[in-house]
Amino acid sequence: MGNSGRFAMRSRFMKAIMGAGLAVILQASLPARADTCDADAQAANLDFVVEDMNGQDVTLSDYKGQVILLDFWATWCAPCRIEMPWFVEFFAEYESQGFVVLAVDVDDPVPAIQSFAAQYEMRFPVLVAADRDDFKDAYGPPVGYPTAFIVGRDGNVCISHTGFTPKETFEQEILALL
User: Fold this and answer.
1) Could you tell me if 113 and 149 are in contact, meaning their C-beta atoms sit under 8 angstroms apart?
2) In this structure, are 26 and 107 located in the same domain?
3) What domain range includes position 150?
4) Contact 99/92 with Cβ under 8 angstroms?
């Protein structure tokens, strides 16, 4: 085979490799599959009324039918400080599609929560649960913070994360449920 034949074959081979690589990259950047919520997913306990940081009652069952990111966090939690701006961003981006963040502070006095919420521009419900072991225990006492649950529109807990989770993971999971 002459040089031009080898060049043509090498060129086709390289195009095939690049095409396959591009397909892998594109597949990795797509949202998770829509069946992210397992058929055996447990129902989220949304039978709670919890005060928000402004002293208003928030009824969790009012959010059934939406995709809920239920995040148990605290102001002193370093991973929480990393993730919270993402949740603010996701809420701004996906609220119109039926997405809500319910940020559940587990340990701080109300003034500290309010200051944190103002600093991070949290426009979603910020719930106060320091003295609400019944509520925290309904999701299995968290073994670390942050602990996040993603609840599908049907009210089932589809996904949970304890500790730091990458932004891309959260976004793919949320998009798959929207």
Assistant:
1) no
2) no
3) 49-177
4) no
Rounded to whole angstroms, how far apart are CA atoms 19 and 147? 39
- Cα–Cα distance between 155 and 150 in angstroms, integer? 10
Dihedrals φ, ψ of 41, to 5°?
A: -60, 145
Q: Token digits for 163?
A: 């500790």
Run of H or E residues at 117: helix 110-119
Nearest Cα to Cα of residue 37 among 165, 159, 148, 160: 159
Tokens encoding 9: 């074959």
Q: What is the pLDDT along the chain (178 residues), one digit of tens a residue?
A: 555 554 444 443 333 333 333 333 333 333 334 446 777 788 899 999 999 999 999 999 999 999 999 999 999 999 999 999 999 999 999 999 999 999 999 999 999 999 999 999 999 999 999 988 888 888 876 678 999 999 999 999 999 999 999 999 999 999 999 9
> Are 154 and 114 within one domain?
yes
Q: Which residues contact 64 (CB under 8 A, 6 or more apart)?
A: 46, 153, 155
**Is there a single domain that holds both residue 107 and residue 145?**
yes
Are 144 and 112 contained in the same domain?
yes
